[in-house]
Amino acid sequence: MTAEVKAAVDAAFREEWGRVVATLIRVTGDWDLAEECAQDAFATALQRWPRDGIPGRPGAWLTTAARNRAIDVLRRRTVGAAKLREVAALSPPDSGSAFEPKTDHSGVQDDRLRLMFTCCHPALSLEARVALTLRTLAGLTTAEIARAFLSSEATMAKRLVRAKQKIQNAGIPYRVPPAHLLPDRLPGVLGVLYLLFNEGYSATAGADLIRQNLSAEAIRLGRVLGRLMPAEPETAGLLALMLMHDARRAARLDADGEIVTLEDQDRGAWDAAEIREGVVVLEGALRRGQLGPYQVQAAIAACHVTAARAADTDWAQIVRLYGQLARFLPTPVVELNRAVAVGMAEGPEAGLSLVTALEASGKLTGYHLLPATKADMYRRLGRADEAAACYREALGLASTDAERRYLGRRLAETGSG
Fold first, then answer.
1. Is residue 149 one of the residues assigned to a domain?
2. Contact status, residue 188 vs residue 141, Cβ threshold 8 Å
3. Which of 5, 63, 274, 313 has its Cα between 20 and 30 A from that of 343?
């Protein structure tokens, strides 16, 4: 297999996995069958594309291969006769409309967004809804999802299995609810989009810190959702948050792929148009007077991206906003971020006190940003040996190559290793 074919299959997986799986789930109603057939389609591509060449429309090729595989499987299931007729009736994607969703009363016309609402059934816990959708639609591995939830891979695998079993045993229908019921499922859908964006913006593992395709897909779906539910301020808040974070993407790594911290980023490289759009979207959401966690987080992001220089950042306002956010999301990660803001507004000693208390609670054990934050505060206080010890701890916990290199450089700067 040539490097060109491998790169093409990898790109197709990133861009087409969710579309292929969503289409098969819609027509078969079988989660496991859809994933199995999608995986088989990609495996077939690895075998055939070196011989036959890379198709002009990889997504159409993969969807057809997965569809054909589903027909083969259903033929062996006597109970699948009705579904077999439905799947077999689908013409290849090249014909255009055959793979478009059937008319319904939800207003959701994007297959992947439809499936998000289907996954986010109220009978499932919020975590199960988000995890199942990330696995099914985004193609994230169980390990990646587990890290996003600060959970073990084994625990997350069990949760995913239980979620699928609950859907099957409870007879939860694979359909989008009517439009007036969509708000009940909105929190889960927003959670999916945010974690999908975060996995692309700051990957939880691997060689690449940034996986732009995932962030771009989250923003695209966020725009679709905004058009679908324009009266929901939290939908606009999330879109604003993603836009303002994404605006800094080009400046987060240097030419060698190394991490550049926020205070050292070239603000001229930030996407000014994305920042302006994000601010406008956020202002529109705030005018509705229904504050929520995504709007607060977007307001925090706005404090950063609208400051002309790092020194102009209004850290006191950011501390206040994190206080508001903690009322919506009383999580240890929010506590840690607030401690960072306090350290910038009131000095590293004040921030360190909060981080030390958080560490003693055990809530963020194994989370590499906790010792990394302590290390930075020790560094700013001139306590090199303590900073070095914390950098070593963070280095042992970091899961991306870029983060490990960054922490290694910081450790070297302490003069202790």
1. yes
2. no
3. 274
Same-domain check for residues 16 and 51: yes
Confidence of residue 2 (pLDDT cuts 50, 70, 90): confident
Paired tokens of 181? 């019921």
Provide the domain count of the chain: 5
Q: In this structure, what DSSP letter does residue 211 have?
A: -
Based on the fold, state whether residues 140 and 189 are members of the same structural domain: yes
Domain that holds residue 23: 1-96
Cβ(218)–Cβ(226) below 8 Å:
no
- Paired tokens of 36: 């199995």
pLDDT at 106 over 60: no
pTM: 0.73
Q: For residues 25 and 174, is the Cβ–Cβ distance under 8 A? A: yes
List the Cα angle 412/413/415 in 5-degree steps.
Answer: 70
Same structural domain, 354 and 380: no
- Hey, what are 94's tokens? 């090249």
- Contact yes or no for 49/197 (Cβ under 8 A): no
pLDDT at 109: 59
